[in-house]
Design a protein that fits this description.
Elements lengths: L9 E3 L2 E3 L4 E7 L7 H9 L4 E3 L11 H4 L17 E6 L30 H12 L4 E8 L3 E2 L3 H8 L26 H9 L12 E3 H9 L3 H4 L3 H11 L14 E2 L18 H9 L10 H8 L5 E3 L4 E2 L16 E2 L7 H10 L25
Parallel strand pairs: 3-5, 3-6, 9-12
Antiparallel strand pairs: 1-2, 4-10, 6-8, 7-12, 10-11
């Protein structure tokens, strides 16, 4: 699906938010975020920027677009940008981030216990907290091992161009990620069968649009919250008959590599090269999907797509953004802390479009995937 960025009007139940639409980044973590150095530089790339969709027909700055925003270059990188809001859900006994951390002050005050495969209540808590901010148009679930595959401007422009949530909510004919609910109790499995609830798994790390996030926030059901996290969001949307408003992609927005030797845990990367990063951007979800990431990076670098609070004006002539297919990955996991330096070098070296095409092969040198080259 290709789309053009237009005015973002965020529906919020009884009212509509017509200001600068933002993307909520929802970090679900046990404690510290060990890849903070990477995230710091990533947020710094969005310092002072305002989405041009605020006034797409005007070539001049207007008070409505800038009056409620301040240039905060002397604040933390998160506070100095206006494209993303950040929410962090660590475990309840987490003492807090260090004072100089960019994530200090973004932890949720209300936290719940969670464990591997059972973090649905923590997911609900994050979405419920973020929905209260009417500027949040999209909601991205991330772990401490997730990192972006693109600069902040690309991720933002791509997400605000997409009407659908990124997950598979039981779409008919969609690839299945397995039906064996092996972490779920017999009583839950019996109820799933009795109520004919979708058994199609979807990745925990998903993207919800505003409409779907509000539905999740309103659906506080103990039974649904007892499901393993890979069933939770897809089941909620399925019960509301919204599966066709999703991308039907079980991998969501996040690239992960799996091996036959371990189907429960995705591969952890301790080093990432530029070539590996580019292959991750190609994705692995559907045959025939083209992820034109070079064009996306080039378009996002056009200064006309954003205004700047530091100059209180638009930075150039407005132009539409031609989005990638909405199944193309925007993040990856799992990146180990010792892989952070190599990934940062690849990410910021890779901002410039690469020459030539890349074959879609396994990152581990295995058999080539049967996917279309870009």
């Amino acid at each position: 699906m290709r789309a053009q960025v237009a005015v973002v009007l965020v529906l919020t139940g009884d009212a509509a938010w017509a200001g600068t639409a933002k993307v909520a980044l929802l970090f679900m973590t046990y404690g510290d975020l060990p890849l903070e150095r990477l995230w710091r530089r990533w947020f710094e790339g969005a310092t002072g920027l305002v989405y041009r969709g605020c006034q797409p027909e005007s070539s001049e700055a207007t008070s409505e677009c800038f009056s409620h925003l301040e240039a905060e270059e002397n604040h933390s990188p998160i506070a100095s940008q206006h494209l993303f809001n950040v929410y962090v859900h660590p475990k309840p006994d987490f003492p807090g981030f260090q004072p100089d951390s960019i994530f200090t002050g973004y932890e949720l005050s209300h936290r719940v216990d969670s464990r591997w495969a059972f973090s649905s209540t923590a997911m609900y808590t994050l979405v419920h907290a973020a929905v209260h901010n009417p500027s949040n148009a999209f909601f991205v679930l991330l772990s401490e091992a997730c990192v972006p595959l693109y600069p902040a401007t690309v991720v933002y422009l791509q997400l605000v161009s997409e009407p659908r949530s990124r997950l598979n909510a039981g779409c008919a004919g969609a690839p299945e990620f397995g039906k064996n609910v092996h972490h779920t109790s017999d009583s839950v499995r019996r109820r799933l069968d009795e109520e004919a609830v979708s058994w199609v798994k979807s990745a925990t790390w998903a993207v919800l649009n505003r409409k779907h996030a509000e539905i999740v926030s309103r659906t506080h059901d103990d039974f649904l919250l007892s499901l393993p996290d890979e069933w939770y969001l897809s089941t909620v949307l399925y019960t509301h008959n919204l599966q066709n408003e999703t991308t039907c992609d079980w991998q969501g927005p996040t690239y992960q590599e799996w091996t036959a030797a371990d189907t429960d845990h995705s591969v952890t990367y301790h080093s990432v090269t530029l070539d590996m990063l580019r292959r991750m951007r190609l994705g692995s979800s559907y045959v025939g999907v083209v992820c034109d990431w070079e064009a996306a990076i080039s378009q996002a670098a056009d200064p006309g797509r954003f205004g700047d609070t530091r100059m209180q004006k638009w930075r150039g002539e407005a132009r539409a953004f031609q989005a990638m297919n909405d199944t193309c990955p925007l993040f990856m996991r799992k990146l180990a802390p010792d892989g952070q330096a190599s990934f940062m070098a690849a990410l910021w070296e890779g901002e410039l479009p690469a020459a030539g095409n890349l074959a879609r092969k396994s990152l581990h040198g295995g058999k080539a995937r049967k996917l279309v080259d870009v």
